[in-house]
Amino acid sequence: MINLKLLYKIIGSLLFIETTMFLVCLGVAIGYEEEDIFPFACSVIISATAGFTMRLLGRKCDNSLSRRDAYLVVTLTWVVFSLFGTLPFLIGGYLPSFTDAFFETMSGFTTTGASIIDDVSTLPHGILFWRSFMQWIGGLGIVFFTIALLPSFVGGSVKVFAAEATGPIKTKLHPRLSTNAKWIWVVYLFITLLCIGSLMLAGMTPFRSINYSMATAATGGFAVDSDYSVFTPAVQYILTFFCFVSGVNFTLLYISVSKRKLSTLLKSAECRLYLSMVLGCAAFIAFELMWKNNYALEPAVRSSLFHVVSFITSTGLLADDPAKWAHVTWVVLAVCMFLGPCSGSTGGGFKCIRGVMLLKVIKNEFRQMLHPNAVLPVKIDGVNVPQSKRVTLLAFLTSYLILCLICSFSMIAMGIDNTNAITITLSTLGNVGPTLGLEIGPTMSWSILPDTAKWICSVLMLIGRLEIFTVLVIFTPQFWKEN
């Protein structure tokens, strides 16, 4: 059976982490002396009380975490964090309903970046920082952050990591998971700090630099401005570079930088597909912009690179309005939404490693037709992919497409136009952020969506962030059986 006391203990401890996050934002609010001091003070009290209560309920628990407990605790952690994350928005009256507040918070923690707020520039600095801070913590995973911070926090952390990590193949720097988590967080922090420094050198204010750097490193996409006029050409190139880097497998990135061998990245089949997709899609869109929108060469290259990288890494930041581009470019951006960056990064989507595996399976199928008796292994970077991983790949792809089909159909039935319905589904399931369509453009908020659609989107964000199976397995009858 489910170890309820252990769940209470874990979620209670994690709520203390969220309380600390509220305290940081309270400090920002006090620093700017704005009206969001009270909402954050109340949020600190409520979350700390809830955390203390949960810890009491979980006292003297058995610290042994089963695989079933791991899946449940990871899903519940993200839901509970999002529920308490709504407090500053609701107490301060910055969002009109719980539905909107939950949507905004889930979008933040899952690094989707889709916003329900029409004009973010009217929000106080503390709330803006909270939106950025949510996605930065959610970038590598809430529980993964806890493993790095509290390695002896609970038994079975490997199972928890498996339930939250992205991608079908896990690479490790160190045999101990806690040490591995710390090094990955060092890489993450270094990328964030380097991005902050670069943006400040490009002329951005410190507050904007910090917020946009957190959005970039986490591939989140929440902006602190209602327009993109602050994105000068220099800023666009900086954000493009750091978005691209954040879409690379962090473990592989650490190995290549520490050993000073860039060839390590180029030898990776996944990184080669990622780079090829970025360059190919950007070249096509740049050509379209010059041909049909009369862009000069440099702006066309800059804008196409920025948006292709933003969409494929699931960041979702915008420096132009793709709604004004030729509709064929929407198809290219939708493909980028679907594919996503490398596994082990902060990005969402299908992941390039699965794309590589799928291409190799297709190639082998053609060869098998010509040589029926041949034994054809699937190898990625010289490592054989077992049959079980191939079955999981096809199950994941099928589940992904079925979810897209069902949710797109549901939204079309609600009266949302076809293009918006499809790209909203791809955007939320891939944790991308912007949508492409006639009713809701890439630069617009999602506030006009019906409440039912917002709840569907919130669920899709969670399912996409936890890579489908971690959430869906909880709803299977087998999960709740005794044995």
Automatic annotation (TrEMBL):
InterPro entries: Cat_transpt, TrkH. It is found in: Cell inner membrane. It is a multi-pass membrane protein. K(+) binds at T111, T112, G220, T315, N431, V432. GO terms for molecular function: metal ion binding; potassium:chloride symporter activity. It holds the Pfam family TrkH. The chain crosses the membrane at residues 7-31, 37-58, 70-95, 136-162, 183-204, 234-253, 273-291, 328-350, 393-416, 453-475. One of its GO terms (cellular component) is plasma membrane. Its main location: membrane. Keywords: Cell inner membrane, Cell membrane, Ion transport, Membrane, Metal-binding, Potassium, Potassium transport, Transmembrane, Transmembrane helix, Transport. Belongs to the TrkH potassium transport family. This is TrkH family potassium uptake protein. The lineage of its organism: Bacteria, Pseudomonadati, Bacteroidota, Bacteroidia, Bacteroidales.
